[in-house]
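Pasting two entries for a bug report.
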Amino acid sequence: MAGGGHALEIFKHQRDKADVLSCLAYNS
């Protein structure tokens, strides 16, 4: 289960990064 939790953290980080990029694209 520890590996699954790590994958979830990676997924969350990727999603957060995508949110930031979409915000920058929207504001530009």
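Entry 2 (this is the one that rendered wrong in the viewer):
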Amino acid sequence: MPAPTALKNAEDAPPAVDVPLPVE
């Protein structure tokens, strides 16, 4: 079930990527 898990991870990635890291 590595494929389904990867897809789910990708779906959870967008929201996380939306928030840029505080690199000052």
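Dev reply: Rendering is fixed now. As a check, the viewer should reflect this: The chain has one helix and no strands.
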